[in-house]
Each structure stands twice: as structure tokens, then as C-alpha cells.
Specification:
about 30% helix, about 210 residues, 6-stranded mixed beta sheet, globular, alpha/beta
Amino acid sequence: MKTEIWLIRHGETDWNAEQRLQGWRDIPLNDSGKAQAKSVQRFLEQQRIAFDAVLSSDLQRAIQTAEIAFECSPESIICLPQLRERNYGIYEGHPWQSLTQLPDQPEPEINLRNPDLIVPEGESLLTFNQRIITAFNDIAVQRPNQKLAVIAHGGVIEMVWRYIQKADLSTPRPYKILNASVNHFAIDQQRHWHEIAWAQTDHIQTANEGL
């Protein structure tokens, strides 16, 4: 018995486009993000998946993506605060590139990818990772043998990918996590996680046509 999860990143916001850290700031989708959410709808319709439930982070960029992608009302979406993006505390709103070590670049004074960094008014990477793994294990236990759509955030997807791949928090990630990407995995009742299809993005390429 297993729980299958289609983990979807929310559509684009203005802060995504400006490369600013959002964290727990409640930023809505922009027009591109809404078009990306619609592209998720088309992609999932082609897959003909009968979902048992739609779960979402309780931040509006995720809820809006769920509403568009599944043509559902907010009341039918199960909103879980434990699926929020990492809390970046005092660094929210800042350009993320100035706070993250980039390939072939020296480490900045504040490196949010340092697992041990204490983030004032926010979460360390280690604390965030533990929150996300616990959240998905709890979902699998509470919803055995279900097919679930889960709309969340780039950091959430990264923590899931690292757990499946057994990659530590310092290992460079070899791919970008795009807005509206779809990631399919399963968790069995022994809490073993299995990747099924990761970083599905072909549907996004035509998302902004007609804007």
C-alpha cells in the first residue's frame, strides 16, 4: 500500500520574476503564474489521474495555483501550513542571489544554503528540511493508498528531492526547480520514498502564449 503524490510548484509571482526571497510573505500569482497554473491543468487532464484530494500550502500563491489547475473552490482545497516555503525571516524580500552561494563564486557572508546558519526570525535549512519530511510522512500515514495533488514551493520540492536521492543539504542541486513543474513520487506505509517521474516541465513551454 502506498500514497502517490504529484508535487507541483506554484506559478510565478512578481517576486519570483524579480528574484526576491518570498518565504512566508504572501505574494499572489502574476499573469504568467496564472497561465502556468492553467498549463498544469492541461497536463494533468492528459494524464487522466483521478485524484482523491488536492492539498496545498496555505500561502495564496499555492492556493491560487490549485484553484486554477483543478478548477476548484478554496473550500475544497486542504490547506496545510506545514507545506509552506522555508521561513527566511529578516531576509525575505532580499535578492536571493546575494544570500546564496552560486557555482564558481565565493561564499557570501550570509549563505542561506549553510545548513547550520541561524536565520533571525526564520528557519535554518535543517529545521525546514525536518518540517517538510515530517509533513509528507504524516500525509502518507493519514491518506494510505490515495492519489494526491500537492501544490507547494520550490524549497519544499528541493527537500523532497534530497530525501529521495539521499543527498545531504550541502550537495549542489543539478537542475532548476521551475514554477509549475510537476514531480511524481510515492511513499509506502514503511515510510520508504520512491521517485516516479521528476521535474516534468514540457507543459510550461507554451504557458504564456496569448499573454
